[in-house]
Amino acid sequence: MSGRLEGKVAIVTGGASGMGLGTVERFLDEGAAVVAADLNTAKGDELLTAAARRGQADRVRFSRTDVSVEADVAALVEQATESFGGLDIMFNNAGIGGAFGPVTELEADAWDETFAIDVRSVFLGIKHAARVMIAAGKGGSIINTASVAGLGGGAGPVAYSSAKAAVANLSVTTALELAPYRIRVNAICPGVIYTPLMHQGDPDAADEWVQALQPWPDRGLPEHIAGAALFLASDDSAFVTGQAIAVDGGLLAAGPRVTQFGHAFKDLNKLVGFAYGTTGQKPRYRRLEG
Question: Per the domain annotation, does 3 fall within a domain?
Fold first, then answer.
């Protein structure tokens, strides 16, 4: 029985861990050939080893990619086309928490770095993927990871929330431009997803505050994002474009107050700094006086 992505070629950025890894695995299981991009080469090696154990080594590649650098993104798209003969799906998933702290204390350079990794990268992914898709004349699907933090207040730090709002809008505006080429562009807006980055190695400790905010009783998992990505990547969503789809267990509907109650945010107003996510780089921060 063939999968829903049989014969398709996909790129997944931030593909070596968390939601990206879950999506890479689901796409492979559904028959796609996948290039996973990430800065974390150790996690990339683990991904390739696991794929080989499942007999999928011939359909997966790993690329160490800095998604904020245009030459890296262009090379990533070229790798997909050279390795597998084309590009049908571009999942611009890579991102970081970035700058955090009170707006009166945020450093402008940290703000710019957050937007470079969380927004500029999505623009670059859309740009270079769309070029290949337009030239091929077969259409395609571009999926971008935004966040419920970009759809309202109270679900994330100000720089991150602003960047994810930009991703959601970028998805809508480019969907209009690329529709004549039958290239669909949509955004996934995750809520609280239990990844190592989110629960910091102790998922049970996160349950109490998540359950106080999220109506749905079960944990949000990477496979939930992978399922939404599969829908948007497949022909099942052939008439869906320009959408920002929340995958959040009802968090947004209930009114997120993550920054007030989430354990990862409880001391956020006392610190200012920058978080690099799962890239392997340690966060930098300083504690505010008072």
Answer: no
Within a domain: 94? yes
Quick check: is 89 in a domain?
yes
Can you point out the beta strands (E) in the chain?
A: 9-13, 33-38, 60-64, 89-92, 98-100, 140-145, 183-190, 244-247, 271-275, 284-287
pTM: 0.90
For the stretch 63-79, pLDDT in tens is 999 999 999 999 999 99
Q: Is 276 tagged catalytic? A: no
Q: Which domain holds residue 90?
A: 9-278
Whose CA is closest to 273, among 257, 263, 288? 288
What would the mean pLDDT of 221-239 be, rounded to a whole number? 98
Q: How many domains does the chain have?
A: 1
**Long-range pairs for 152-156: beta carbons < 8 A, 24 or more residues apart:** 152/252, 152/255, 152/256, 154/255, 154/256, 154/257, 154/258, 154/259, 154/260, 155/191, 155/251, 155/252, 155/256, 155/258, 155/259, 156/258, 156/259
Q: Which residue out of 160, 181, 194, 285 is catalytically annotated?
A: 160
Does residue 81 belong to any structural domain of this protein?
yes
